[in-house]
Structure formats: structure tokens, C-alpha cells
Specification:
The protein has about 850 residues and is α+β, with helices and mostly antiparallel strands. The strands form three sheets. It has a five-stranded mixed beta sheet. A four-stranded antiparallel beta sheet has the order 6-13-8-11. β9 and β10 form a beta hairpin.
Length: about 850
Amino acid sequence: MTRAAVIPVATAALTGVVVLVALAVFAVWPAESSARWLPGVGGIWTFFLPALATVATMLIVRPFLDRTRKWIAWMPVILFMLFSWGPGVAAGLLVQLGASTLLGLAVVWRISTGLFPRSVRGRPGAGLLIVSTVSGLAMVSGALWAAFWIPLNTTNTHFAGYLALGALAWAALGRDGRQIARLSLAVAGRSVGRAPAGFALLGTACFLTFTLMSLLPELGPDARAAYQGYFEHLRVHGEWHQAPWRAAWGLQPLGGLHLAGSAYLMAGEGGARALNCVQAALYAACAAVIAHTIFRSRIAGWAAGAIVISTPVLLKLSGDFYYDNAVAMFITGAVAALVLALRSRTTAAVAPYLIGFGLCLAGAAASKNSAWVMSVFLYALAVATLFMQHRRPIGSIAILTAATAIAMTVLLVPVVLATFLLTGNPVFPYYNQIFQSAFYPPNQHQTPHEGFASLDMFVRLVFDTQSISPHDLRGSLGAGLLLALPAAAAALVKGQRVWLVILAGLLATVGTLTSLQNDLRLLWPVFPALLAVATGIVLAVSAPVPAALRAATLALTALCGLQIALLPTGSYHLAEYNIFQALHPKSRDSLAEFGAPSARINAMLDGLSPSPQRRLYLSTSIGPSGALNFEDGWYTVNARHYLHQARNSEHFTTALRTLAPDAVVVGTEARRHWLRPDIYSVLRANSWAVFDFPGHQVFMLDNTLAFPVSAASTPELAQLVDQSQTVDGLAADGTLRIIFPVPQDDAESASVGFTYTCPADANLILTFGVYRDDHALVARHTQRPCLGDDPPGTVRMAEILPDLQGLNVTLEARLSDADSTFVIRELEAGIKPRFTRQSYLDLLGNR
């Protein structure tokens, strides 16, 4: 063996050793039995095998096609996705991703060619295309943040908006720009058509598995409690009230969530879940660009993409809805742009990539607070590596800094400024012990999470993730992190300083994040870029010796296989479901009914007339709802603390009157400790109906009467109310019309209740209406049978009030028999005020 062959062979050998060690450790110390591939009719294999068969069909067909038509072999994969998602979801994804790609390419192209007229003409390719797509999505997320404050968000407006945006971007590209777009798409198509069989089989099969699993109903508790509530409120009201008294997290940077909210508007829950899955594919593609740029080979790109997409944690991130996939997409897109810039030698050539870097970095920072730490590290890495790689780095660094600063100013600063103006805390609700916002307790979330940094941290991240986070199982982050060891050693020995600095910087980012949080999914956004850089270095250093390259490729294939074997550890509850529960409507509905009953409960409440607009959830998730929701969790933390003060039935009764919910949903299976039996007796005593659902009870209340209309507001009303309280009652032989004036303060709902007696051969005809300037806005008609003098009938009617001034609520009553007389007794009416910013602050005074 020659001296030149030692390093490639040693790198391949070390890579093989770390993969074998991982295989041995997980064989001796396997994952929990609940997180393994299940035999029989259930389990994740029912999703994986159809996906694997589809990709195998593509690989079998591909050799029979000539080079110009190999893309046709991918038709089974395309049809598989269309079959899974359906035309509605596919159309929503197409317009959203298409318009975003054209927007990103137009901005990158126009700015860079304006600065340097010959900047990108010779550099079309898949890298430019994918960076433009992620950059465009970052800009769209910022536009959506602004648009969601305006009540004009509907399915039609979003479809039209994307079509108009795409048309404008296409026109802005000009002839040369459109040619660049076509060439870049053609290059990407050729790369896909000539994909290495092994990595294409494993990586694409994993992606199609997640595609199928995205058809399951949303079962993640966080997604039901927060994200779906946000989506549904946006759908119902056409806007998102980003207010701390509605949700504690509503003012955080949520750019990635806004993208999903737009997809939800266009295609429902399936659209949001499909976009979440596609974002995983996008950052796998970014990882492929990174590795391919380091080592100019399709093998490197597909190996990195397959390793990323097969990491078990993606089962949770793509099977349940978490917008960490969006953060990972922006972070990996930024690293891809940086790596492409480092491979370009002139300032003119790096301009489009550095502009894309700034947009991607700002998109990440505007999507999650934890991405601010990542953004600082990535910007520092970019400056350092440009100094190292370019002879004249000042121009490149100036473009990098300007692009990042402008993008941050446009996408992030408005979010932080709005948060500060509304709450007094720019990072609300975190670090409130410093900012002392009145909307959140000062002792909550002093840091985002309690960290777990330690000397053995990286070993635990691979082999003992369960000891770090109770939400994760052993092996959920896969074994790809081990590639950092041979990659760092090879880059150090070979003197690849730039790639070594990037690898070390990404590892330092992970280490820093571990000191701030203990949820592994919050670390994941850094991992795709880290895995891609490590994969590219290992293959690039092994390449001079063909046998070493083959050995390294085999080791990476084995790593993908190991991660697929560990796939159920990503989410043990998702690994137990089967494909029939995703595809068969009745099975899917049954799973949703028992796995996520809050969605069914909210659908029932939304179907009532009037629909309860104020709901309290105890010991359960909120679920998708456009109503005003309280819970005993951290999303409405002031309400939680107020409820927890209810030490007895009297205190809880006061709490109910203060919050005034129209419905109380209680989870009965895992009841929280503060829900004592006497609280149930209060709920039953104050409920007019109780509905039973799997593991839940829904108590229907009418707390509007806790806010009585002043009988003295008008002399006529006072006389009628007083008469109804007498022994004789309020008698009428014609049409009785009672007007209840609505206070000028914001009013949410009105309710009226009374008992009545009338001859048994007649019906009492009632009209409950809301009027403004003698014009009926709402008029609800009903009839009640007359039962004679004994027993009396009971009436309770309620109506949601529009947000208008000068309203009157009117009750009209008459008998179907005009010659008879009816009597009304115990007349009472209430008008409940809206829950406002001040109402939320008042809870602090009641605690």
C-alpha cells in the first residue's frame, strides 16, 4: 500500500468501524419492545413495504429506458404520492412550492445580476434551484405573517395569491432568468434519473413511508393543542389573532407554522401534514447538495439524503405535525448555500448563494426562537470560512452581511417588535423574569428548557437518547452522528480546513443547544447539515482509492439500514398503526375518535347553534377549534394558575363564573391531580347537558346568565321583569315583545331564560333576535308545546352577538291560538362580555 493510499483506506476503515460498533451496540442493547417492527397485521412495516415495492418498481424499469427518458421510471413514485395525497393536496403543494421557487429564483437572480451582470449565467444546477426554493419559502412565510393579521385569508385568496405571485416572479425573471430556471430544472432531473440504486431505494422508500403516514389523523398532543387550534382559527375567522391572551405562544416567531397554516387553508389538515412531509424531503435534498458539493459525485449526494431521511426522529417529525421540519429546512438550506458559495471562486459567482444564505437564515430565525442560536453560529461560520477560502473575501462578506441584515430586518424584526409592543417582552413568553410582562408569570420558562450538556453528551445522543428526554426512545436520533468522528479525523489529516471548521462549528452548535433544551427534536434542525458535511468528507477522502470508496459506501448503506431498523424508535405510538388506518375512511375515523377525540368534540360543538365560543379544556388537549379556548396547560397559563387556586367547590364555582365557559371538556382517563371529585359535582350542578366521549366528558354550561342585564336599564324592561317574578307572572294574550339593550362595551353573547304556562291545545311561538337600528341581524324562530298549567315549560335561548355597536336583543312570544293567554314567570336575561386583553390581565388580580 502506497503512502497516498493510507489516509483513504484508514478513513473507510474507521467509518466501517463506527458503523459496526453502532450495529453491535443496538443488537446487544435493543430498543424497547414497544418501538420495534411489529409482527402480524399491525406496525410500521405495513407502510414501509408498499413504499419499498414502489421504489423497487422504479429501479427495475429504469435500465430499460435510455438516458433522456430515465425520469419516466419515477412515474410510479409520482403516482404513489398523488394517490396518497389526492388532487386537492397536490394542487395546494404545487402552487405553494412553485410560486415560492420562482420568487426565490427571481429575487436571487435579479439582485445578483444587478450587482454583477454575469453572476449566475454559467452556474445553473440543482443547488441553485433548491436554495431558491427554500429562500422563496422564507420570504413567503414573512408575507404570510403580515397577511394573517387581516381577515381576508380564505382558500380562494391563497390560491389566487400564489398564482399571482408565481406569474409576477416568472415575468421578473426575464428571458435569461427563465433559461437559468429551465437549465437548473433539467440538471436536477438528470441527477434524479441517475440516482445510485441502493441509496435511492432506501431513502425514497423512507420518504414514501412518511408520505403514507401523513394520511393518519393528527394524533400528536402538541399539534392538537396548539398548531391545529391556530389553523382552525385561521380557517374560521380568516385571520390569526396573535394575542397572548389567546395563546401564550401566539407571538413567538412562527414562520414555518404560517406556511403550514396556508397549506391548511387550501387543503385542510391533509395539506398541512403533506407540506410538513415535503419539508423533510427538501432538507434531505439540501443535505444532498452539501455532500455533492464537497465530493463531486452523485453517490455522496444520495448517500447524505438517504442518511438524513432515514433518521428515526423523522417518523415523529413527519408523522405528527411539528414545525421543526421547517426550521431544519431553512438551516440546511443556509448551509447548502454557504457550501456552494465556498466552491465558487469569484465574488460575482458567490453572490446568488450568499443572498440565498441570508434569506434562509432569516427564515429560520423567524420560525423559532431556538434558531437564533443556530443563526449566530452559522453566520460566524460563513464569515470565517469565506476568509479562509477566498483570496479577496471582503466583497463576499459584505454581500453576506448585507443580505443577512436586510433579510432579518424584513422577516424577523417586525415579529420581535410586534411582540414587544403587545407584551413588553420581545421573546415572550421566555425569560420573563427579566422583562416582567404582565401576560405571563415571571417564574415560568426562565430558559426555554433545562439543558443536558455533559461530557458524554454525543455518546448519549446516539446510544441513550431516552436518558436525555422522556419523549424519545433509544436510537431515535439514529447513528449518523458517529460519522463526525471519521470525518473530523480525515479532514484534519488531509488539511481540509474549511470543511473541518464547518463540521466543528455545527458540532459546537449542537453542544450549545443541549445546554438550553432537553427535547431532541429541537436539536434536529442542525443534524441534516451535520450529517451531510460528515458524509461528504468521508467519501471525498476515501475517493482516491476505489476499494476504500466502495467500502465507505457500503458502510454508509449499512448505516441507512440500521436507521431503518430503528425507525419505530422515532415514535412508538405511530409505529403501532397500520396502513389500513391511514387509507380506509372508517378505520381512519375510528382512530381519530379514540386517538384524538378532541377533534370530534370540537366538531360537535361547532355544529351547535349557536356554537359555544368560549371553551375550557381540563386534563386534555384543545384540538382544532376556532373558538376562544382555555386550558390547564401552559398555552393559557394565567387561566391555569387561576384554576389551580380552586381548592374547594366554592372557589371552583367562582372560577367558572370568571372564565364563563360555554363548554367544559374534561379528560377522564389521565385526570390531573387538582381535579377533585367536588369539582365534578360543581360541573354537573351548573350544566344543562353532559355528553360522553371516549375518555372525555363535555359539560354544557350557560354562563351568560352570570352577567345579568340590568332590569333598571329601561322603565319598560324593569316593569316586565318585576311582573314575571310575582305569583301571577307576566300574562299576555297577544304578541309580547321584550327588548334587552346591549351595553356599549364589547358583548359576546346573549341569553334569556324563563318558565311559561299556556293552554294545552296551543303552541308558544318564540322569536329571539338581534337588532341594530330596527334591522334584524339574527332572528331565530322556535315553537314550544303548551302543557297546561302544570307542569310549566322551560325555555332557554342564546345567541352569539356580532362585534357591532348599538345592538338590541329582542324576545317575541305569541300563541298559535290568538284567543288564548300565556303566562311567563322568572324571566332572566344575560349578556356576556367578550374576553379581552384586560380580562386576561384581570385573572392576575384574581389569583
